[in-house]
Predict the 3D structure of the following.
Amino acid sequence: MLNTFYEEEIYGFIFREYRELGDPELLLVSLPDVGLVGSIAAVNIIRELGMKDSVGIDSYSAFPPVVIVQEGEPKHPMRIYTGDGIAVLITDVPVPPPAMAPLTRAIVEWALRRRVRAILGVTGMGNPARIEMERPGIHYLAIGRTAMGMADKLGGDAKRLSDGILVGPMALILKEAARARMDMMVIMVDSYIDLPDPEAAARAVEAVSKITDKEISVEKLMKEAEMIKLRYRELMKETRSMMAKMGKGYEYRAPLLYT
């Protein structure tokens, strides 16, 4: 693994920084969820912007005993890549449900300590009609002035989610960001519920490109779509099991209305 430049423990999670981070303005968070939309989109963004592996996140009690090997280099399964004022968090393994709450608190706290202006969550929104869609729709939630400004950049390409139930990692991060009075926006793209969906991920990348004012190509992502579906099949299977434990089915019913 890379030599540690700085290390700190936050809510039981160890953040090992390998290089000077500067002050990233935006933290993009992708955790395995519906259609693996965030995971696929984040990998494409990291690749297209040439971002550097900068932070490894570890926990000997919360995470399974896993090391990821890339080009002969051992890496933490959860990492933060940085570059050009942006930080992107990805993980190669699903987060066990008992670890989700302390992990999301740790992520928001890390962002606060690094003076990040806003958190951007990217995920899928399971839609039974996805198979009929040529171009999946984009929905969003935003809290705080900075996040609302980010939403404005999407223009008519996205719809604000007015009613619904959000379940899973993004729901926890959103609640924690609100508690900490930190700006956050969540992008949700219509996707297959339990199949890797690179086409929906491409839509998410296009939205992130608008928000960050950076040109991020999805050409390679679309060319590799079929290969991605196969490569992410096992992760989707593991994620499906985790989603069931988190009560993901609540998302697919209307919320109660009180008058």
About this structure: The domain at 23-51+81-252 is CATH 3.40.50.10900 (Rossmann fold). Residues 97-113 form the longest helix (17 residues).
